[in-house]
Amino acid sequence: MNKKQREMLKAIFEEPTLSNVKWANIESLFKNLDAEISEGNGSRIRVILN
Predict the structure, then answer these.
(1) What are the CA-CA distances from residue 37 to residues 14, 29, 44 (Å)?
(2) Is 36 helix (H, G, I), strand (E, B) or coil?
């Protein structure tokens, strides 16, 4: 995991929740963790991790 991805992980769990977290950065983090990402109904996204 690179520095940018570690900072993204920290931002996701920060309190209060940040509003400027971009989906592309979260998706990159998931892909780095070998998660499976698929589209669900409407705007839903399914993530399978481990």
Answers:
(1) 23, 11, 11
(2) strand
How does pLDDT run across 4-39, given as a tens digit for each residue?
A: 889 998 988 999 988 888 999 999 999 999 999 999
For the chain, what are the domain ranges?
3-48
H-only helix segments in the chain: 3-12, 23-32
Q: Name 18's Cβ contacts closer than 8 Å, sequence gap at least 6.
A: 11
Task: Enter the tokens of residue 26.
Answer: 């979260």
Q: Which two tokens stand for residue 41?
A: 């109904």
Please give the residue that has the higher pLDDT: either 1 or 10: 10
